[in-house]
Amino acid sequence: MFPDPVGSFPLNERLTYAHVLVHIAAVDGTLVREEVQAIEGYMGKYLIPPEQREEIRLGFESPKPLGELLTNLSHDLLYFILRDAIIVASIDGEYDQSEIDCIRAISDKIGLSNEGLSAAFDWVKSGWKWNSEYKNLISKNDPK
Amino acid sequence: MILQFEYSVQLVKTSAEFLKQKVPRISMLPDTVHKLPREERFAYAKLLAFVARIDNELTVDEMAMFEQRLGTALLSPNQRDMIRAALKNPPSLEECLDDLHGEAGKLALRDAVLMAAADGNVDEDERDVLEEISEHLGLKEEAVDLLLAWTVKGYNWMKEGYEILNSLEE
User: Would you list the DSSP string of A111-137?
Assistant: First the structure.
């Protein structure tokens, strides 16, 4: 029901994908547990082998340079990297300037317009709204 | 060259202003699994292992969803091994439910619904288990229906994301 093409990219590209997300999480100098949680979730979802996960986690301490990571990636994967980079950057509730710079760098690599990038940000925001709705749905004492 | 530099600075400023307006300064992640005590996260994951094996089939979609939730729960490597073993040899539902209450239970039911729907179809056995979990937690009678509707909404959100990504391609 939730098909996601990222899982069908070659392993080396999925590893780079994860390294980019780690870079985004670490770039503002503060790593929150929610960011780690999201990246661990992505590594699980895209079935990255445990040994490679260990290596990717090292990036929380010293992330790989973004410019280096963004070379030799397929154009299609860059779109998904952009999507999930915005999600990871939004997790702590605000976008730091350094995170915006990274997102902009990915967007530039794709050749995206400002409007396109805004649409992606709006989409992420609507996803958080959806995600939070479940809480009020199911408890007896909560309003319908 | 200078013009180009100024232009890119302007773009960043515009983006930052845009983001300040659009993004509330609150914690956006409503997923509180990581805040639960370790034993409750383990109980949560054990239930998901059970749900993944209800129909005795484990599709790639279910596996991906299961591994995602396992990652999100931030379990220790040892606990992950135990949960993966539970996937091969699932515990009984009663055993899973014994350790599951409150917030952990609600999150487990939510994610059990997501996992049951991951292959695009919630069969009768899966539905029965979801109802049993809901009853154990003392939730609204229509809780499972509401969560299924919520899941479909989320699916549409994901789909919309792909459509946006496709529309961005020149």
Answer: T--HHHHHHHHHHHHHHHHHHHHHHHH
**Cβ separation of B30 and A33 shorter than 8 Å?**
no
Backbone angles phi, psi at B27, to 5 degrees: -70, 120
What's the ipTM?
0.80
Q: Which of A107, A82, A93, A74 is nearest to A34 (CA)?
A: A93
- Tell me which CATH code domain A5-140 carries: 1.10.3680.10
Q: Dihedral of CA A107/A113/A117/A119: which sign?
A: negative
Q: Contacts of residue B146 in chain A, CB cutoff 8 Å?
A: 137-138
List the single residue in A with minimal CA-CA distance to B30.
A132
Distance from CA of B23 to the nearest CA of A (A): 6
B33 touches chain A (CB under 8 A): yes
pLDDT in tens, B115-149: 888 878 898 999 999 999 999 999 999 999 999 99
